[in-house]
Amino acid sequence: MSAAVPTDEIYERYLKKAIAEINELGDELARTGDELRVPVVGSGHPLADVFLLKYAPQPPEIQEGVAFFGRSGQAVLKSLQRLHVDPLAVYGTNCLKFGTEDPEDAAAWLTREIHIVQPKLLIVMGGRAVEFLNELRFPLADPVDVGAEGVLQRFTPTIEVLVTPDVDTSLDDQPRKTGFWNAFKALGPWWSEQPPY
Q1: Which of 21, 142, 184, 191 measures 20 to 30 Å from 161, CA to CA?
Q2: Between 36 and 13, where is the model more confident?
């Protein structure tokens, strides 16, 4: 009879696997690009509870090759801090990895990312990102209602969704910024109900 494997050891195994798979995806994306087309890879914890999703990378993200680099990342970080959400428990990415690729290629990459990270909550920013997510036909997924901003929705049996306005288009307009915050702040109560690590 074998001894039970401690929970910490199981988590460490999953974490090592997730890191290897995320790195493999990043390497594959890098091989797909060239000097003029550099992929924007996801950033954050590879087994994050919270998965942030925007539609396309902005120029600072493209320049650095990292999702949520620049103004949108700073705005989200401030929002996470206001809600007392640990930013180390968050992963962020874009639907499009180059901003110009065939959406079918990008769909396969995003599907892999969601499978690797296995988040509990997917925060989908903007209507185009919601539409892209719905078109993935993710296993056991319910369609996400783009009009239900700030309301938790079932996505799969293990993942909930929170829809917000597009953070990138919300930063320079106070009413849009307020709209983003009003939807995003639903993360706070959800987070407070999660069991501690």
Answers
A1: 21
A2: 13
Query: Tell me, what amino acid is at 75?
Result: A
pLDDT of residue 12: 93
- Region 129-157: mean pLDDT is 95
Task: Determine the straight-line distance between the first and last CA of the chain, rounded to whole angstroms.
Answer: 29
Stated pTM of the model: 0.93
Residue pair 67/54 in contact (Cβ under 8 Å)? The answer is yes
Residue 34 CA to residue 159 CA, distance in Å, equals 35
Under the banding of pLDDT at 50, 70 and 90, the label for residue 157 is very high
Q: What domains appear along the chain, each with residue ranges and CATH number?
A: 7-192 (3.40.470.10)
| Tokens coding 123 | 């925060």
| Polymer length in residues for the chain | 197
Side-chain-side CA neighbours of 32 within 13 Å: the count stands at 17
